[in-house]
Fold:
Amino acid sequence: MGTIIDGKRISDNLKEEMKAQVVALERQYGRRPGLAVIIVGENPASQVYVRNKVRAAEFVGLRSVQVTLPESTPEADLLAQIRRLNEDPAIDGVLVQLPLPAHINEEKVIDTIALEKDVDGFHPGNVGALWLGKPCTLPCTPKGCLHLIQTTGIELRGALAVVIGRSNIVGKPMAKLLLDQHATVIMAHSRTRNLGELTRQADIIVAAVGKRNLVTADMVKPGAVVIDVGMNRDDEGHLCGDVDFAGVKEVAGFVTPVPGGVGPMTITMLIQNTLDSFIKRESKKQ
Ligand code: NAD
Structure:
């Protein structure tokens, strides 16, 4: 049986370290890092994500601001709120929870967040910098996945990684991060033929699709590292990933559970990005 990668424990340890770091930062700079989270509407999943982000921010001692706007909020009002937070010197990170109501242009919203406060790493300035190999803020989910992969001690240089899913927030940046570690990366997606033939060769599989039981034991090479980003519900309504966890854990060398794998790491990376943004902003003042 493979080792279960305990994302919850790893992220709890990181949060404890960051809690101590926040105390030191406040002593050094006279203020705490600030994170603002904006939520528009009442999407229940978004409400849970925002609650968890705010809770984690408060746990590590950040100054945490939550802006809750009604579903009917005009786009211009949301943009005005973002600009206000962009200007607020006590705020180092501005995050708008996605998805947004249909009448709001998501692209415009992301573009409006100040590049230096884009702790989600979704701004075109950060995405461009990532692909050019320049310093940037990394998107939280793939950053957390890479961290989990690295805890296994696997040699990434020359390893074959198959990333399933090509979204802007997970699949594409994940592939780039693995490429930067000198892995050979295959990006699989909805039109990929013979997915199993590809994954069976992989040393690392990252599944980021949103389809239950997409990755089964027969698709995994013995000893491989399997990272499950998916968030789905099973027939009983329980949270589950894209990977058939029960089957795959018998074959894989390492596998992340859902819940308790990638999810907590995503939130912890958001806090880390906020601390980094704070440090960058404060050092500029010196
Ligand atoms: P998305 O819907 O934007 O992208 C899904 C991708 O999967 C697409 O690129 C599509 O080509 C690919 N795909 C669809 N069907 C496929 C198939 N049969 N075979 C191979 N590829 C297929 O989704 P996303 O935003 O990248 O999220 C993916 C999943 O990860 C969702 O379940 C989401 O809830 C979850 N997620 C989890 C976290 C976390 O922190 N745990 C963060 C972000 C997303």
